[in-house]
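Good morning C.,

I know you're traveling, so I'll keep this short. The sequence:
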Amino acid sequence: MKYACLISLGCAKNLVDSETMVKQLVDLGYQMTGEAGEADLIVVNTCGFLESAVQEAIQAVLEAAVHKESGKCSLLVAAGCMVQRYGKKLLQELPEVDIFLGTSHYHVLASAVESKLGGNPKRLWIERPVRLPEPGRVISTGPHSAYLKIAEGCSNSCSFCIIPNLRGPLRSGMEADILAEAERLSALGIKEINLIAQDTTAFGLERDDPQALPNLLEKLDVTPGPLAWIRLLYSYPERISDRLLAVMAHSAKVVPYLDIPVQHCVPEVLGAMGRPARSPEGIIEKIRSIVPGIALRTSIMVGFPGETRARFNSLMAFMERVGFDHAGVFAFSPETGTGAARLSGRPAGKTAEGRRAALLELQRDISRQKLEKLVGQSLPVMIEGPHPESDLLAYGRLPTQAPEVDGCVIITDGEVKAGEIRPVRITVSHDYDIEGMIL
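The tokens, ready to paste straight into the viewer:
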């Protein structure tokens, strides 16, 4: 029996690519294992968005390479964004790696492995990414929840971001393929689908179809089978249309949740970021007026060039006024190859980290206040399974909590099974999590 181990780093979009590679390995006759020491073949699907992620990826590759000396491993593959970012430079830097696959070549993993085992010396497979998301994969997120990638690449021009270089221009999936995949997932028992892309609200724009996303949601809403929750992630705020919100407001399955990475609120900073130079506050008000009770998640960047103390104070006041349900806060990283890396007026690293800490503290207070209002309410919860910190507890998520990035509901009383959607009475609130009992 041949064994393969795949280590997936980075975001959920990377995870879907990993799932397509697992499918290829299974079709080649490999049995998948989570133990790298047991594997004949190890694949590390890397992240390369930030230099810190690159360092993590290199460390993961080097740790996997140890098993070529002390374990069964005879073939080591590095794939993904780090490979796409650095290409030929890696051939000398990582001689331990037998095959390098850029984001352009996930689909050739099986043939690259067979070719290498057959004696082909070629190590690097890379070109400009132009393919659509690959069909066919092995779901790795459990029996009840899955990600569904609806587009690949990005054609936005954010000055701080290298994603267009790593992933290529926007390529939207075909509607029929996406609907077929949703039906397949539902037939497998999947109850929650999280729609992902570099920018889900750009879906169909390269085909001059601004209504493509709301049209897709309307058709996904009638997917047969147990599918109950459809969630939209990674949405560009300026592309949140009235029709999209109307579809969400009247949908039976699209949950009241949007992930809108606003990055900042000061027009001068947004303009330097390559984004529309106006505050997103009006867009947020529109969203909440059309979809009452919606949960909003965002990403905020501090320490960007030109962010003065006064502008940061404006950002703090904006965050307090708007009151996002969930927020990630990141310090600006000047990535080589981006326009933002060449801008002047960047706050010191220590200053940026201090601002990040202040925003996170503010967001913790906002989250705590919002969750306190849920105590006493009975709400639907998707059960994930035993709590990772105690077998005596279970945990799950509200429709307003996305997997992995948001808080959870800790089940303190009642018998449950993973994948169930059960009514839960909320009894206790914390900073990011809540507790409840099954009704």
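Safe travels,
E.
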